[in-house]
Fold this sequence. Notes:
By secondary structure, the protein is α/β, with parallel strands linked by helices. The protein has a domain at about 35-165 and about 225-250 and about 265-355: 3-Layer(aba) Sandwich (Rossmann fold), CATH 3.40.50.150. Helix content is about 35%, strand content about 25%. The protein is built from twelve helices and 16 strands. The strands form three sheets. Strands 2, 3, 4, 5, 10, 14, 15 and 16 form an eight-stranded mixed β-sheet that branches. Strands 1, 6, 7, 8 and 9 form a five-stranded antiparallel β-sheet that branches. A three-stranded antiparallel β-sheet has the order 12-11-13. Strand 6 (about 175-180) and strand 7 (about 180-190) form a beta hairpin. S-adenosyl-L-homocysteine binds near residues 101 and 164.
Amino acid sequence: MEPPSARNLDMIELLDEIRAMIAERGSITVEQYMQLALGHPDLGYYMNRDPFGATGDFTTAPEISQMFGELIGLWAAEVWSSMGSPDPVRLVELGPGRGTLISDALRAARIVPAFRNALDVRLIETSPALATMQHELLVDCGVAVSWAQTLKEVPNGPAIVIGNEFLDALPVRQFVRVSGQWRERTVRVNSDGALAFDVADRAEPYIRAAAANGEVLEVSPSGHRLMFELGTRLVKQGGAALLIDYGHGVTRFGDTLQALRAHRYVDPLAAPGDCDLTTHVDFAAMARSASATGAAVYGPVDQGDFLRAIGIDLRTKALAERASPDRAEEFERARARLVGKGQGEMGALFKAMAVADRRLRPPPGFQSNTKSA
Length: 373
Ligand code: SAH
């Protein structure tokens, strides 16, 4: 038998810690479980590994093609100009992963030198391993970059905020409809030691939505807090935020908690800390929280439509013309994967939403989209 890898040992340790916590409390909520599995300071999924790419657990849009980050860099330059070209301007990225998006964005921003010179880049990252990778990638980028653990730590002033696949990593509470009442979904330990889903004894009378028994309702308290914080900041200090994620534009019932390991779906309770856990983002709910602050909300629109509106077709053509035939084909394949709306493509599954100071004109990619109330 092969000795267990460091990765597996961490997983066993975290599972033991979760079991001990459940033994003490009877059960923990799904939200607490997600928080521990992803964000436990030593043993959480993101804390000590690089989860991305072919050898990791999943691939994200900036890892598919440089065009994604480049176009977002130009999007940010355009927003900056509509803000009246403030200097300095904070460019904040939430959960930058390997740092690929921001690195591509900063390279593309070279064509707008005044914007690039005004930039104060702030990366919000809780994982020390990923912060180190980001640092290594950006060390020679020629722009001031610093790190923080929360948006609150970013100094006041006009800001442009980017978050790709950030909201889907925030823990959610789940409620299950049982005998006409909502009860919080929990995690307990089975007699064989395995983790299993359960529901709390206590009903939640303040949730008014009616639904058939067995339905699941997901609520992201940290998502709502973030939207509230973003909206409040942008209204007061100016700027805009772009959030791109896997999710739906209309609130609906359903259990969307999923776990990915080596590009395959696995049981979300089987290996806490050793697989990525996400839920689909409820953009309608996020939009409600942002709107409540007085900020303008645009979209969500399909990622494919957003990327085409900000020029991915032209960018693909320009890059392909200068590349070898093989590389040219790669750019075209990447474009198709990012904008296509068929099976295995991201164009319709992923959505883009913007939150902005009302005084700004609609951000690029959302111009044909009416401002929500
Ligand atoms: N945006 C990147 C990575 C997405 S994965 C990309 O598109 O490739 C989620 C990222 O968010 C990781 O960098 C993870 O470490 C970070 N993260 C997750 N929860 C966080 C939190 N609560 N605060 C800050 N960063 C967080």
